[in-house]
Specification:
The protein has about 350 residues and is an alpha/beta fold. The structure holds NADP nicotinamide-adenine-dinucleotide phosphate (NAP) and zinc ion (2 copies). One zinc ion binds next to loops.
Length: about 350
């Protein structure tokens, strides 16, 4: 099926109109009309080849909410008209120990990402959500709680699960002091979840203008990270810190804030390596870890949790024609707190 889209043709070209073919649904496939797609900082990293693995043309977008328009003959979970979502993965090997445990994001063969991944059906690359429609195996399609604003659900598919999963894995909850670093798309969801899980939540930001928002979004305290005195007041007091920063910054300053045996988890994926000093780690047996999105079952659990607790992303809706301007604003840390593309703008173009 011919599908309208927006793609990057090179690391330096703007994201621009494009068209592509989607396969006709195979027996286990769901065909989805895309209604909304969130704009993740990973879209920018990849459109601009900052991770040095982009194959062009690149159609970004992995925070997808849409409506089922057709289903293959074997599809059991979905029917035409259902409101559904697709996140960062569209498939995985399904046989390795990680896949069998529902940790498809940790697949031994690496999961097939929603865009810029090897498409086993077309033989080319996968194309993401900056498009009219997508066809995905039902095993990688999520159900959207009907009580939530579907546009504000879209960012849950990456920003949501990427922060929910490590907070759950490291058992963040009441009685703990938890730090979230960076109030962007991921950070604002991490803040909402840490607050919802009952932790005393401290938000670290480089942007003094975000302090009031951080409090509204659930922060018990807000620290301007550029202020060394403010940072030092919290030395050795945190049970857990989640770092969602997209660019170069000093993670040693945050390691110093952890208690003995506590963990700093990186979810941010800056272009350049971050220097790690040995002493902040060895002094209090602190740990530095990473986390990648979350599995399909946990993504559904997160969506259901959001439905029950009325949690969505704070969004600014844009048309697809505004995408390059939106990228510039994300790079200036000027987004409150996730751009979501209204795909009706692509149909109208
Ligand atoms: P975003 O909306 O741009 O947020 C990043 C935030 O980091 C900014 O709002 C800003 O917060 C802070 N920041 C930016 N530049 C900084 C600098 N030079 N020094 C210190 N702080 C800075 O990005 P996002 O979409 O949330 O993504 C964040 C990162 O996570 C990206 O690298 C993305 O690729 C990665 N990511 C990883 C996964 C995963 O599975 N691990 C999944 C999705 C995304 P303040 O203004 O509050 O300082
Ligand atoms: Zn993402
Ligand atoms: Zn696997």
């Amino acid at each position: 099926m011919r599908t309208k889209a927006y793609s990057a043709l090179s690391a330096t070209s703007p994201v621009a109109p494009f068209s592509l073919d989607r396969r006709a649904p195979l027996p286990s496939d769901v065909q989805i009309e895309i209604l909304y797609c969130g704009v993740c900082h990973s879209d920018i990293h990849q459109a601009r080849n900052e991770w040095q693995n982009t194959i062009y043309p690149c159609v970004p977008g992995h925070e997808i909410v849409g409506r089922v328009t057709a289903t293959g003959s074997d599809v059991k979970k979905f029917k035409t008209g259902d409101l559904v979502a697709v996140g960062c993965m569209v498939d995985s090997c399904r046989t390795c120990p990680s896949c069998k445990k529902g940790l498809e994001q940790l697949c031994d063969q690496f999961p097939i990402l929603t865009y810029n991944g090897p498409d086993k059906h077309s033989g080319g690359m996968t194309y993401g959500g900056y498009s009219d429609s997508i066809v995905v195996d039902e095993a990688f399609v999520l159900r959207v709680p009907t009580n939530l604003n579907p546009a504000a659900v879209a960012p849950l598919l990456c920003a949501g699960i990427t922060t929910y999963s490590p907070l759950r894995h490291w058992k963040v909850g009441a009685g703990q002091k938890v730090g979230i670093v960076g109030l962007g798309g991921l950070g604002h969801m991490g803040l909402k979840f840490a607050h919802a899980f009952g932790a005393h939540t401290v938000l670290f930001t480089t942007s003094p203008g975000k302090v009031d928002d951080a409090r509204r979004l659930g922060a018990d305290e807000v620290v301007i990270s550029k202020n060394a005195d403010e940072m030092n007041k919290h030395a050795g007091t945190f049970d857990f810190i989640l770092d969602a920063v997209s660019a170069d910054h000093d993670i040693n300053a945050y390691l110093n804030l952890l208690k003995t045996d506590s963990t700093l988890v990186l979810v941010g994926a800056p272009e350049k390596p971050l220097p790690v000093a040995a002493f902040p780690l060895i002094i209090k047996r602190r740990q530095l870890a990473g986390s990648l999105i979350g599995g399909i079952a946990e993504t559904q659990e997160m969506l259901d949790f959001c439905g029950q607790h009325n949690i969505t992303s704070d969004i600014e809706m844009i048309s697809i024609q505004q995408i390059n301007e939106a990228y510039d604003r994300v790079l200036r840390s000027d987004v409150k707190y996730r751009f979501v593309i209204d795909m009706a703008s692509l149909k109208a173009a």
